[in-house]
Every structure is written in C-alpha cells, then in structure tokens.
Amino acid sequence: MKRVLVWDVPTRLFHWLFATSFAIAWLTSENDQWLSVHTFFGYLMLGLIGFRLIWGVAGGHYARFTSFRYSPMAGLAYLRQVLSGSGTRYLGHNPAGSQAVYLLLALGLAVCITGLFTQGGEEQQGAAAGLMSIAAGRMVKEGHEITAILMLLLVFGHLAGVAVESWLHKENLPRSMVTGIKDAPEDAPASRPYRLTGAMMLVAVTAFGAWWFFYALHHPIEKRLGYGEGVPHVAFVGTKLPDNAQWREECGSCHLAFHPSLLPARSWQRMMAEQEKHFGTDLALDESTSKALLDFMVNNAAEKSAREAAVKINSSIKPEDAPLRITETPYWVKKHQDIAESDWRSAKVKSKVNCGACHQDAEAGTFEDAAMHIPR
Hints:
Strand content: under 5%
Number of strands: 2
Shape: elongated
Number of helices: 14
Distance between the termini: 60 Å
CATH superfamily of the largest domain: Transmembrane di-heme cytochromes, Chain C
Order of helices and strands: EHHHHHHEHHHHHHHH
Number of domains: 2
Structural class: mainly alpha
Strand order of the largest sheet: 1-2
Largest sheet: 2 strands, antiparallel
C-alpha cells in the first residue's frame, strides 16, 4: 500500500464550497431579511455546478465522470453488499456514491433554476426578471422548495453512507476529502498535483462574486434609484419606480411619501375626495394641484404595477374596499404579524407608519425583502 492523492484541490474545494452554499442557502430561506444572502449562495451553487461539470471532464483521474460511470443497478447491488457487511473498497466514488453525485448535481441544478425563476417571477428581479408573472413565480417556488427538500434528504443519505463506509473499511473518509490522500495499492493511479491552477481559478471566481455581491451593501442607494441620502444599498433592490416632484413635495412635506403602487386607484380617489379630513388635517390643495396629484397616483396605483409589494397588497384587498391606510391592508397585517410589540415601541421605530425605520428603501417605495432590517 502507498499514500496516493485521490481528490485534487479543485475537487475538494468544490465539495466544501458546494456543501457550505447549500447549508447557508437552506438556513436563510425562511427569513426575508436574509434574502440577498440566500440569493447569493444560490447563484454560487449554480456556478459551482457549472465548474463541476467542466471538472468532470478536465479534472484529475478520480474527479472525472469516466472514473465513476456506474449504472443505478450497480449502485443498488453495492448497497446490498454494504448492508451485508462485505462492500468492496473503492479509492474514488463507489457505485452508490456515484449515483449520489449525479443526483446531487441534478437536484442542485433544479434547485438553482427554479430559484432563478422564483426570483424572476415572485420578486421580479435577477437574471429571470420579467419572464413570468408573480403568480407563476409562486407556482415555481413550490417546485423550488420541493427540490430543496429532496436535496436535503439526499444529503442526509450521503452523510449516512460516508459514516457506514468509514466504519466498514476502517478509514476516515471526511478527512480524505480535506487532505485528498488515501492508502492505495501500489498500482493505483494518482491525481496530478498541479491541478492547483484550477483551484485558484475557483477561489478567484468565488471571491470576486462575493465581493461584487456584498460590496453593494456599502454604497448609498441614491446612486441607483436617484433619491434618498445615506441609505445603504442592497443587492436586488429593484428598478426605480415612477416619480413625480410635485407629489413628492406635497405628500412628503408631512410624512413619508407613500408610493401610489402601495394602494389601489380607488383608495387614492377616495383620499383626494376626502382631503378636507385627511387623518385630522385639511390638505387644502387647489384644484389644479389635486388633479395633478390624483392623475399621478391613479396612473401608478397598485393595479398598474407588477412589483411584488403592489401585487400582493392589491390582491389582498376586497374589490369593494378602498382602504386609506396601508397598515390596514390584509397583506400588510399578515406580513407584520410576527413583529414584537417591543419593536414597535422602540425609540427607533415608535410608529407603524415609520416605514423607513426598518425598510432601507422606503423612500424609494420598492420595499424589497432584502432591504428590510428591524433595528434592535
């Protein structure tokens, strides 16, 4: 027996980066505040899968698909051997492990593609933005979640297989995926060590992607949306909404200028018709100003917008209702129901209409999930 390099550096880096990406993406999938992080690691997973497909042809001996080209029947036969306690030891992927690799790549690709279309549909952002409606994006999201669950179950199966193999053959398989080294017969081929170039390329691409994605968090949002001062920018905050200087001046002089896309046209019509009792105040707008503001608000109301907040708020309101407060719409109430009373009473929040306390893009009116942060 001799010590042999089985897993070259790029293969090992791929393995741990892929595992880490999936783990972080899974852990950040349920919290809107972490949506940008979830999205980044989804894109990273997709890039890693692309690399692995290339490395499966150009990589080291044991990384190439030709070295573990086993049929599903061979995988089942090997599992039966292992269960009987007599499985053959393989330097590279065994027949059952090879099926796990193929399935992980296939499910990972399905998770990433459905994630792209979920983001493009439900959020109207990213590489697939505008290719489908929000309703279609919700349907794709169901598939995204199902494939992610299947992938998680497969990961657990893979870990169980590694544990059994390590026990059966009295070797530490996780350590070999760190060092790349295994004990092998004298005639066993070894992976070539100069694959370091591929590893450096993989690290460079990953680091550049992380820098590009998270560097935006330190830049002011006005550079992309045209207004706001000192507001941190977030990835995938969306495109600039229609704006109007007169509307922003009149409505923003007393409070946040809530974008027209956050209520249906009938709400804005009712608000302007009842402007003499505007939440205890008489707006006292002249006829021309009232008409100009109403035209802007009706033309850009919720039913005219394809943005996520607009569509979801509008669809939650009954056709016969014309609410005047965004905080009373069913979608808003449901979205904020888990926020603690102590957060509402916080000195940094104080009021449910102080949207800018938690939403970094409140002034822009986009209200993206990734731009939300509750001050503690």
